Amino acid sequence: HTVTSVRNVIAECARGDELARTDLLWIVVHHTSLARLGLDNLWPIRDVDLDGPRLAASFRAQHSLGTGRRVPYHVLIGYDGSADQMLPLAVRGAHACGYNATSIALAYVGETGGPNPAQYATLLRLSRACLVWGGPHVRLSGHTDLPGASRDPLKRCPGPGLSVSALHATILDHLPEDWRRWDAHARSLALISEGLVVEMEAA
Predict the structure, then answer these.
(1) 125 in helix, strand or coil?
(2) Could you report the per-residue pLDDT of 44-62, keeping only the tens digit for each?
(3) Whole-angstrom distance, CA of residue 166 vs CA of residue 98
């Protein structure tokens, strides 16, 4: 799967006052199964019941109700391994306390038992693309592996079902030996091949 519905989903999430991300230092992996408000149903629903476009609509509904909640994830990976980009990579997501300005958030829908094989394959591919684009100094981390990134000291995200350090090692093991010397154009091709958007074009 390549990233789908990029511009439509981003448009659903846009507020018009998003903050720019600064230097990229982290690719942060999350799982998500939180309660949200639905666009046509104000009863709580779970992320695990939503695909990317409907999850984007749920965030838009919360914004219109004045909750002030910002979109957390740059890319959401569904149960079938499909991916929807919810924020341009140059914009901050609201996903990790103290790290939002220097990170990109990749989230898979599900519980703490880990991604299914289709989700893992997509997560591997997109993590690789973002790491290559960011350069050798960028690191991959789980949400709560970052000190102070969650206000809940008991939270474990993405949870014991996924070793993010092993995922990072797998990516590095399969990159060409000279990738650290690639120029910006060569690195950007990794994003282009996956359909990821850095900045939205002006309307």
Answers:
(1) helix
(2) 556 666 666 676 666 656 6
(3) 24
Count other C-beta atoms under 10 Å from residue 113's C-beta: 12
All residues at 6 or more sequence positions from 14 whose CB lies less than 8 Å from its CB, including other chains: 200
Residues in the chain: 203
How many CB atoms lie under 10 A from the CB of residue 189? 13
At residue 61, the pLDDT reads 64
CA distances from 177 to 174, 184, 189 (A): 9, 17, 17
Omega cis (within 30) before 160: no
Q: Give the dihedral sign, CA 34/36/40/41.
A: positive
The Cα–Cα gap between 133 and 155 comes to 30
Q: Distance (Å, rounded) from C-alpha 144 to C-alpha 121?
A: 22
Tell me the residue ranges of DSSP E strands in the chain.
3-4, 26-32, 35-37, 44-46, 75-77, 83-85, 103-109, 139-142
**Token pair in block for residue 189:** 């091709």
Give residue-wise pLDDT tens across range 127-158. Answer: 999 999 999 999 999 998 899 888 888 888 89
φ, ψ for residue 140, nearest 5 deg: -100, 135
